[in-house]
Design brief:
Elements: E1 3-9, H1 14-28, E2 32-40, H2 48-54, E3 59-63, H3 77-86, H4 88-105, E4 109-113, H5 116-125, E5 131-135, H6 136-139, H7 152-165, E6 171-175, E7 188-191, H8 197-200, E8 210-213, H9 220-229, E9 235-239, E10 248-251, E11 254-258, H10 261-270, E12 273-276, H11 280-288, E13 293-295, H12 302-313, E14 317-319, H13 326-331, H14 339-346, H15 349-360, H16 368-374
Parallel strand pairs: 1-2, 1-4, 2-3, 4-5, 5-6, 6-7, 8-9, 8-12, 9-11, 12-13, 13-14
Antiparallel strand pairs: 10-11
Helix pairs in contact: 4-5, 5-7
Length: 377
């Protein structure tokens, strides 16, 4: 069995929760995760749920590129690109930090969760350590993936950044809401979402409260306005607002909660449905629990626009351009409810990922015939 270092993009919670899930799967397969390297913007604090999970395992944090929202609610594409070029020396220093970390821990392999500095490390060092890059973004490079028809230039930039993160990777693994053929020419495999054991252990209940998850607190204005006009609907909203560190009861029917992984899971378990900013991980968790989702991409966030489109195709729920919750209200009675089918797909992740990890470092693998016989979708 092998020793791995996980390099993780620390923006949001999606890649961090994926790293937790794969750590759990790796340990069950007999592998060891000997260190974590987390990239974040200007020293942003690592979320407590991740720090608590890794415990005493060696961890480094360094600065890496991040999306720029300016002072508004939408992604500022030009500012994001300028910010990345302006801070290139800082990112080069981050690559040096990662180099020292890897040299100290001597892993057999590296698993990269869409972390740009990992690609820069391989570009700088020419390291021959086997590396696998994993994330929903790599699925977008798969020739079988169906994307949105508009914003081709934005998609080009997104895919360019994805390729930069994958410099030095022998294998790309695309996380997908549904089964899809691999792209053998580009060496892109397709696997189910990586969901934490804690999510899979939840017993879902059909409650009446709606759950909202926002990746940017400034997007809450529309939620507040809708809640005032619809006092009969009870909403719980999770956000990271620097001005609101405690639970905030905006109205009798709308309560804001600071990000809390355990509390969020319990609210998810018993909610009627989820309204989310189209982050891949949040949508996948809701699908696993059979919860309808309204997916509202952050304005100008091309990745989330594609996620929302793909999620709707996959039966997650309804895509929308604004937080007009009347759209969700109208969708709820018609939601197909395909949780069992999605759970069957997710059930293959343990065996597929165990195979990918072993293949990366050339250890014994689970046969394809075994997978096909015992875990057919």
């Amino acid at each position: 069995m092998g020793k791995f270092i996980f390099t993780v993009q620390g923006e949001g919670r999606g890649h961090l929760t994926q790293a937790i899930s794969l750590t759990q799967l790796a340990r069950e397969a007999g592998h060891e995760v000997v260190g974590y390297a987390v990239g974040s913007f200007q020293g942003r604090k690592i979320p407590a749920f991740f720090a608590e999970f890794i415990g005493d395992t060696p961890l480094i944090q360094y600065e890496s590129p991040s999306i720029n929202y300016g002072k508004g609610k939408s992604v500022q594409l030009g500012k994001t690109a300028f910010q990345a070029f302006r801070r290139i020396r800082t990112y080069w220093k981050s690559a040096c930090q990662l180099q020292d970390f890897i040299k100290e821990l001597q892993p057999d392999g590296i698993v990269n969760f869409y972390e740009s500095i990992t690609g820069m490390y391989f570009l700088k060092t020419g390291s021959k350590i086997p590396c696998m890059s994993i994330g929903h973004q790599y699925l977008l490079l798969n020739r079988h993936f169906e994307s949105i028809p508009e914003k081709k230039f934005d998609q080009f930039l997104l895919n360019l950044n994805t390729k930069i993160t994958a410099i030095g990777s022998q294998k790309l693994v695309g996380l997908s809401f549904r089964p899809m053929a691999p792209d053998e020419e580009k060496n892109i495999s397709v696997v189910p979402p990586l969901l934490r054991r804690e999510i899979k252990a939840l017993q879902a209940e059909k409650g009446e409260r709606w759950l909202v998850y926002l990746t940017h607190f400034r997007l809450a204005d529309e939620i507040m306005a809708w809640a005032k006009k619809n006092p009969e609907v009870q909403l719980d909203c999770f956000w990271e607002n620097p001005a609101r560190r405690e639970v905030y009861e905006y109205t009798d029917n709308l309560t804001f909660h600071p990000i809390d992984a355990e509390k969020y899971m319990q609210k998810m378990r018993s909610c009627k449905g989820l309204i989310s900013t189209a982050g891949f991980e949040s949508v996948a968790e809701a699908m696993y629990l059979g919860k309808p989702v309204m997916m509202v991409p952050v304005p100008n966030h091309i990745e989330q626009m594609i996620n929302a489109y793909d999620g709707e195709l996959s039966g997650a729920g309804v895509a929308a351009q604004t937080f007009d919750l009347d759209i969700f209200k109208n969708h709820l009675p018609t939601h197909p409810g395909n949780g069992e089918l999605f759970q069957s797909w997710c059930g293959q992740s343990q065996y597929l990922m165990a195979n990918h990890l072993s293949n990366l470092i050339n250890t014994q693998t689970i046969s394809a015939d075994y997978l096909e016989t015992n875990f057919a979708y």
